[in-house]
Structure to design on (682 residues):
């Protein structure tokens, strides 16, 4: 039902209906992977985005026309589709981008053309660091933001030595470096660290055995998607939980995969910017609405799409209608959403949000999460970002 | 490195486990290639299909039914593929075959996405094989041990069939010289068909066996294809001995590479592949000397 509305809107654009009867309209590009390895994430974000528009966008005196484009998780395709959105569809803003590779590819295009981009996933630190742009506002997370507080928290729990594992690519390294920096600063020691060949590793057994033999107090890992499921299942099969408890970046036991992990994920403690069991009224109504629309519990990806829609609606409510005004308004949005209090850091355009430490536990209907701690929101370090005071162009 | 003996025992078992999984896949591909001179790149996609079939069945009928049904299901798909595509492509040369079967990978990949969706699936390890087993002084996951034993059993069975039975002799004759075999009254086409179906069934079995260990994703067939091809090139085309040797080499290099030289882990196997191609381009144990 809810998906159908979006499809109708998209269909309306292709028919190019005359808009004379309408007072106002804005064109929004939805740039997500609907095929390729991250298709599941693209669909999840789109579902959240559609729900967000429906929840918050009904009272707007402006019609939102969506232009849906598939990045195929390929930087070259992502760039071509962005060019199409900007030059042909003449969109006023773009929402989406799952992969940091695609974000890197489209960054100069949106920055040069002066089109606001709401990033709904891609976590590359540099996108709101050295490569920041006044036109790019991120409402999802940054790789180090999710893991830095976890480093401090684990040190506070009395964990002294940690072994780390992650796939060998940019996000894997940024996640681990964010954790390692904070953990060692708080007095902890990293006694071993491996990066596994990305998407080429079928068997994590050798690495798990290596970590067990290191005698570390705990194992901290980042894996996502299929690798997260394989890793958690294989870790559980070795029965390592007693001497080497598993901690990680929260994507490891994301709501999206936890059903596939099943009992293997029980007792894994991770940190993330969102879990479906956060206790606040906004989250309760979001989870209920998403469940009704999709028949399952939302993941962090869904909430990123939902909040991207809300940020867009808030910007439109200020009266912004074109690229310049939307770009300026998006940088100033702040609201209390399912994730708690959210705001945009003016220094980097990255989201500022609390981080939740949670344990995956057995629930009545499959696996669920218990929030162990809410760690206070803090802005990312500027990381070389020099932000022009106002969008110029 | 201060690891003791049990650490190395554990890693050896890990290496064997990976080897056996790859063996189940590569044996089908290598015999199809050796016998039919047919490059079936879609073999990896059949493996993914096996995992998906197993995942759908395991939910209701349990793991043991799934592990039987997946090879049968994939073999049936193999029958359709053989009748619809492979038979027509038999004489059209390796380049056309590679292109068609490569295209087939994406067709099957999208088919699995349409039928089962984008979200990763999984199968729970069966109750009888969950937990660990004490073996040679280490505690090792029972399911991994099961994979090692299953791989060894299949190897034994295939070795017996190929070396000791009439159909084995016919297959060997066909691999060696198919024209001569046909002159001797062997129905080579029918032989091809049977071997192709057995190869597909083994790919389906590998998928079903891998499902509880890995995750079931649309891209899993593409991910396993490269290791399988490396195994075949190292081992030599068309022979059982080559497939088992290549699998063992791949498993051990990958596992001990990850332990001893993690920075080189992803490069080591390719370096070995290059070395084999330079020193012995036909592989270590090719079917035709």
């Amino acid at each position: 039902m809810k998906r159908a509305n979006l499809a109708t809107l998209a269909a309306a654009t292709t028919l190019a209906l005359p808009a004379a009867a309408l007072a106002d309209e804005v064109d929004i590009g939805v740039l997500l992977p609907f095929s390729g390895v991250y298709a599941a994430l693209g669909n999840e974000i789109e579902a959240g985005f559609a729900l967000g528009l429906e929840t918050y966008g009904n009272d707007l005196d402006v019609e939102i026309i969506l232009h849906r484009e598939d990045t195929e998780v390929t930087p070259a395709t992502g760039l071509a589709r962005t060019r199409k959105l900007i030059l042909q569809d003449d969109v006023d803003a773009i929402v989406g981008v799952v992969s940091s590779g695609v974000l890197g590819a489209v960054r100069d295009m949106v920055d040069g053309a002066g089109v606001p981009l709401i990033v709904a996933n891609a976590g590359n630190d540099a996108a709101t660091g050295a490569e920041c742009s006044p036109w790019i506002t991120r409402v999802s997370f940054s790789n180090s933001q999710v893991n830095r507080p976890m480093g401090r928290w684990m040190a506070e729990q009395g964990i002294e030595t940690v072994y780390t594992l992650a796939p060998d690519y940019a996000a894997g390294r940024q996640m681990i470096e964010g954790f390692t920096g904070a953990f060692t600063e708080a007095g902890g020691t990293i006694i071993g660290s491996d990066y596994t060949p990305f998407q080429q590793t079928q068997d994590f057994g050798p690495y798990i055995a290596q970590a067990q033999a290191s005698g570390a107090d705990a194992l901290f890992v980042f894996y996502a998607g299929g690798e997260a499921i394989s890793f958690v299942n294989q870790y559980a099969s070795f029965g390592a939980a007693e001497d080497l408890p598993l901690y990680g970046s929260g994507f490891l036991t994301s709501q999206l995969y936890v059903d596939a992990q099943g009992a293997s994920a029980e007792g894994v403690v991770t940190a993330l910017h969102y879990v479906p069991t956060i206790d606040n009224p906004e989250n309760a109504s979001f989870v209920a609405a998403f469940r009704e629309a999709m028949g399952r519990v939302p993941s962090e990806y869904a909430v990123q799409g939902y909040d991207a829609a809300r940020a867009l609606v808030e910007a439109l409510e200020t009266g912004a209608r074109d690229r310049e005004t939307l770009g300026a308004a998006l940088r100033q949005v702040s609201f209390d959403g399912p994730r708690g209090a959210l705001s945009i850091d003016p220094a980097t355009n990255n989201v500022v949000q609390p981080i939740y430490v949670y344990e995956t536990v057995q629930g009545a209907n499959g696996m669920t999460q218990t929030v162990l701690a809410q760690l206070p929101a803090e802005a990312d370090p500027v990381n070389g970002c020099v932000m022009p005071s106002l969008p110029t162009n | 490195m201060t690891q003791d003996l049990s650490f190395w025992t554990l890693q050896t078992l890990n290496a064997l486990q990976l080897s056996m999984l790859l063996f189940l896949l590569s044996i089908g591909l290598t015999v199809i290639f050796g016998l039919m001179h047919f490059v079936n790149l879609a073999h990896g996609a059949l493996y993914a299909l096996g995992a998906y079939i197993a995942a759908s069945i395991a939910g209701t009928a349990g793991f043991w039914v799934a592990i039987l049904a997946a090879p049968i299901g994939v073999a049936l798909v193999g029958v359709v593929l053989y009748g619809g595509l492979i038979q027509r492509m038999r004489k059209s040369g390796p380049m056309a075959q590679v292109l068609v079967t490569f295209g087939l990978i994406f067709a099957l990949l999208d088919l699995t996405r349409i039928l089962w969706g984008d979200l990763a699936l999984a199968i729970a390890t069966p109750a009888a094989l969950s937990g660990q087993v004490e073996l040679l002084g280490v505690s090792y996951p029972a399911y991994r041990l099961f994979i090692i034993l299953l791989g060894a059993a299949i190897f034994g069975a295939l070795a017996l069939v190929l070396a000791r039975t009439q159909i084995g002799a016919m297959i060997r004759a066909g691999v060696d010289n198919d024209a001569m075999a046909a002159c001797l009254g062997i129905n080579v086409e029918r032989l091809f068909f049977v071997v192709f179906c057995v190869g597909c069934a083994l790919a389906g079995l590998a998928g079903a066996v891998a499902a509880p260990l890995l995750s079931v994703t649309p891209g899993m067939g593409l991910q396993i294809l490269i290791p399988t091809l490396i195994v075949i090139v190292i081992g030599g085309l068309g022979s059982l001995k080559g497939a088992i040797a290549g699998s063992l080499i791949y498993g051990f290099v990958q596992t001990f590479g990850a332990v001893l030289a993690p920075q080189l882990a992803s490069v080591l196997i390719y370096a070995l592949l290059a070395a084999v191609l330079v020193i012995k381009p036909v592989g270590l144990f090719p079917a035709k000397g």
Remarks:
- The longest strand of chain B covers residues 132-135.
- DSSP finds eleven helices and two strands in chain B.
- Chain B touches chain A through 47 residues (CB under 8 Å).
- The first helix of chain B runs from residue 5 to 36.
